[in-house]
Amino acid sequence: MKKHTVNICTGTTCFVMGGSELLLLDELLPDDLKDVIEIKGSPCIGICKNADYGKAQADHAPFVQIDGEVVDEASIQKVVDHLRRLNA
Amino acid sequence: MADTLPVSIPGDSNSSLLQNAFVEVGHFQLCKHNQNAPGDVFLSQKNPSDGRVITTLSDGLGSGIKAGVLATLTATMATKFISYNIPIRRVSEIIMDTLPVCSERGISYATFTLVDIAPDATVKIMEYDNPPYTFIRGEAVIEPSKEATAFERRDKSTGPKNDTRVLYSRFNAAIGDRLVFFSDGVSQAGMGTKRYPFGWTTAKAREFALGSVREKPEISARELARSIVRQASQIDMSKPKDDISCGVIYFRQPRDMLVVTGPPIRPESDKEIVNIFSSFVGKKVVSGGTTATIIGRELNRGIKVNMKSFVKNVPPWSEMEGADMVTEGIITLGAVQAMLEKRNEVEANTGGMDAASRMIDLFLDSDRITFIVGTKINEAHQDPTMPVELEIRRNVIKRIASLLKEKYLKEVQIRYF
Question: Regarding predicted confidence, which is higher, B122 or B383?
């Protein structure tokens, strides 16, 4: 199975908007996904202040990139759902 | 910085070698067993007007509050008078005539050791009845010559039986030199025991200090003072029979630290900030995602987040070649400020592994700290839905800087971009 990369933004905006919980993803991941994803962190990716992302602005933080694709208002559940879809 | 170092000629005793040295003053103290108040007082101050560092250790007669009052009076008067350049003979007279008389013993008495360090490295020491100080250069003890001055007090009946003699010495210090001085709680530790019938003695305490320096040539003043006091207390079976105090002064190359935080108002300044960062010699911290991105981009260096290094309120730190640590900005700095305010212990490291604790430990291990602060406002933080605790960087840095200066006695410089 192909490995997916989850990149969690650890910048200020994302951290205060719920990203601090996302950092626990590693521990809260369901068993079936544990071996197929790689979790990384990144200093501020810059999405919060980039108008090019359209609706993706500061109030849609926290942001996560899954295989480069931006997931906004990310929660553990949302990330898991996204990964399940990719893996289906 | 590096290009402003004074030119010094090796072997020239009059060289300005010490101009750039940092005078680290450390001290540690334990109270006599079952006493809550120390009867030894240690005072240290840096004269803003002439840059002299004046340090006094005074040991009051007896122990507890009464001794504390005698020692506080003595140390305060000695430090103030010397800082106003009043001759030592006159200072001693005033002190002896001022001290209150002990109701039990009918005498008034507090010993002292006063060290007066001028910015040109001239060290003047006045000693009155404390164990002699130890001057360590490299790994050897040097005995400077001492001049004795006798004086009489106005009311002879309140003086101790023996003559009052103040020992005066003067020499030039060089980088690497150390001065160790302690109260008789150190030299008399363990007195009367089988192993130490005459106490630990000044000679043995000196050997111990020298041994510590040989073992760890870079040992800081605070560490050395602490280890000497601990050792004396151990000899006293951890129940000190007297107050045990030790002061150490270490003349050393200052340890520098740089904190770069915030993007500059003008993007043209990016390059200047990066230049300051790469040419800086010392510990380096980058605080802020955008700042880290700028430096990483200009120097073509990757940034790797250490995912295990976060705690509830502090985002994880990252690694980047050439930096001791890269952190998130304002939350981490806010946590650093709160911790610096709250801590009572100003000397011991936190030992924590999160970004804020590590930054504090880096501060504590440095003498001179430079902040490079970019003042561009982060538009993402201006969103009204964002939590209010996101402070303005400049204000947080100002508060951290004044805490480091006033509470932790660091030299701090801030440059805005």
Answer: B122
Beta strands in B219-323, from DSSP E residues, in sequence order? 244-252, 256-261, 283-287, 303-305, 318-320
User: Average per-residue pLDDT in chain B?
Assistant: 86
Closest CB from A12, A20, A49 relative to B330: A12
pLDDT of B8 reads: 32
CATH architecture entry for A4-87? 3-Layer(aba) Sandwich (3.40)
Domain ranges of chain A: 4-87
- C-alpha closest to that of B74 among B4, B3, B166, B205: B166
- Token pair for residue B405? 């200066």
Measured N-to-C along each axis, helices B270-279 and B289-299 cross at an angle, to the nearest 10 degrees, of 80
Contact B381 A44 (CB under 8 A): no
Q: Is the pLDDT of residue B1 over 70?
A: no
Q: How do the domains of chain B map onto residue ranges?
A: 15-252, 256-416
- With contacts defined as CB-CB under 8 Å, which chain A residues touch B330? 12
The b-or-e profile of B164-185 (16+ CB within 10 A means b, else e) is: bebbbbebebebbbbbbbbbbb
Alpha-carbon torsion (B229, B233, B238, B244), positive or negative:
negative
* Secondary structure letter of residue B311 according to DSSP: B
Structure-token pair, residue B66: 């009464």
Task: Please give the average per-residue pLDDT across B222-242, as a whole number.
Answer: 92
DSSP letter for each residue of B65-84:
HHHHHHHHHHHHHHHHHHHT
Cis peptide before B160 (omega within 30 of 0): no
User: In chain B, what residues touch A12 (CB-CB under 8 Å)?
Assistant: 289, 315, 328-331, 378, 380-381, 390
B286 versus B101: the higher-pLDDT residue is B286
Residues of chain A contacting residue B378, judged by C-beta atoms under 8 Å apart: 12, 49
Chain centroid to CA B174: how far? 18
| Coarse DSSP helix, strand, coil percentages of chain A, rounded to the nearest 5 percent | 45, 20, 35
User: Can you tell me the ipTM of this complex?
Assistant: 0.82
Residue A23 touches chain B, beta carbons under 8 Å: yes
Fold of B15-252: Phosphatase 2c; domain 1 (3.60.40)
| Residues near A63 by beta carbon (within 8 Å), at least 6 away in sequence | A9, A14, A19, A45, A47, A48, A56, A70, A71, A72, A74
CB B375 within 8 A of CB B393: yes
Q: Locate tokens 């997916």: which residue?
A: A4
